[in-house]
Specification:
Length: 134
């Protein structure tokens, strides 16, 4: 019985320790999901404001709901919302910017508002911020 208690205590401590450390370089809560039924674009558009880091086209990300992974995919940035100079869009989005992702072949119920998009491998080689937003 004592060994069983030790085993459960170790599992509990390992689980809580891993939950408290976030290795994500990028994080964004989903605020809106729109289903696209167009001739060219079929799938969903996800909108949210970046709460941590940056993300670029072709970076891998996961979508979690209540701490469980519900989807893994690759970024296709459609737009940075309210970008003052559209010519400054370089395929990357940075902390504080509201962005739209496109994910083909999914239904609106696959991703929901409140889900969290994150990436441990996000890489923004063009900069940590937008240099030309005027």
């Amino acid at each position: 019985m004592n060994n069983k208690f030790r085993f459960l205590a170790i599992i509990f401590l390992a689980t809580t320790a891993s939950c408290s450390r976030s290795t994500a370089k990028f994080s964004m809560p989903v605020s809106e999901v729109e289903e696209l039924h167009g001739f060219v674009l079929k799938g969903i558009s996800i909108t949210g404001t970046i709460s941590k880091g940056c993300i670029a086209n072709d970076n891998e990300f996961v979508v979690t709901r209540s701490g469980k992974v519900v989807l893994t995919n690759t970024v296709r940035l459609v737009e940075v919302v309210d970008l003052k100079n559209p010519d400054s869009f370089n395929g990357e989005a940075y902390f504080g910017e509201q962005v739209r992702f496109y994910i083909p072949d999914l239904k609106k119920t696959d991703v929901q508002p409140g889900d969290i998009i994150s990436s441990e491998t996000a890489n923004c080689p063009k900069g940590p911020t937008r240099t030309s937003s005027k």
